[in-house]
Amino acid sequence: MAWTITAAILLAANLPAGAYRISKAEFPEFAGAIACEWEGDDCPGAAEGFAMQGRLGAEIPEPSVPNPASEGKVLIGFPEGKPFSWARYAVDFPGPRMKWIVLNELSSGDRNHVFLTRWKSTGDSLELVKIHPRSLPLDLGETHVFAKTVLPDKSLLLILKGEGADAGVGLQDFRLFRLQAPDKIEELARVTNRSDTPVNAILERLNAGQEVEAVLDSSLSCQIVKGRKAPSGGPLIRFIKTRTRVVYTRNGPEETPAGGDTTVLDIWKRVKTGAR
Question: Residues with Cβ < 8 Å from 188, sequence gap 6 or more?
């Protein structure tokens, strides 16, 4: 299991110029372009709000159509083919009138640049408050809200999950954030698992009538353990890495459990001690 702990991200609250408003009914079709001159994973242009915004396919061209998002801008919104729900992409914090919404990159590129955005919820509409300038890059797939829980000081633990699969590659990428009112973000931990099966080589051997050696696949899951607290008094987070031995045949894959690892994380202790 690969652990990558990042430094705290402390972002000051500021209102982007020309705040944008959209109805909640139209929001699943929303897309917006940010002008990014990258500084590592930071996009300073996000503080200016969206360079262009609207409904994808209406005010905003589809990513496959030449548009300003292909000229040094990042187009973000909701991935096509993924089921939209508020629970999948948004959390209310510190109350129901403020939503933190996860937007994934829609423009083509080698990586998916994911952004946390803040919106004021009023009646049946949303008004943009801020695009946080730190991108959360993901090599494969999309990122969504996985879980949330209140910490002992009433801040919010937000767990985002990035996941994807393509050509034998499988990825699970969990990021754990602490949200504090009104606009402070602290990234506490990142836990990632990547498995890579040589699909093309396996198919070549099967088509040639040759035997294929077993490969080891793996996947990572996360749980906020119910009914138990960590020694610090905060939530107990459990990560389980499961391994599977897979033999590919002409009749399909034959899978056998091959053990796994369990790791527990006392996230509130990290907050209190500042350990990363």
Answer: 5, 157, 176, 177, 178, 267, 270, 271, 276
Q: What is the pTM of this model?
A: 0.89
Which structure tokens are listed for 49?
Answer: 């709000």
Q: Which of 127, 123, 178 is nearest to 155 (CA)?
A: 178
Instruction: Give the chain's radius of gyration (CA, Å).
Output: 21
Nearest partner of 119 among 4, 16, 1, 237, judged by Cα: 16
**Number of helical H runs and strand E runs in the chain:** 3, 17
- Separation of alpha carbons 267 and 269, rounded Å: 5
The domain containing residue 164 runs over which residues?
A: 2-273
Residue 69, both tokens:
């998002």
d(CA 202, CA 230): 44
pLDDT in tens, 4-46: 333 333 333 344 445 799 999 999 999 999 998 889 999 999 9
Q: How far apart are CA 214 and CA 244, in angstroms?
A: 10
CA–CA distance from 57 to each of 52, 61, 73, 97 (Å)?
13, 5, 17, 28
Q: In the numeric block, which tokens belong to residue 37?
A: 């001159």
Number of domains in the chain: 1
pLDDT tens for each residue of 138-154: 999 999 999 999 999 99
CA atoms within 13 A on the CB side of 246: 18
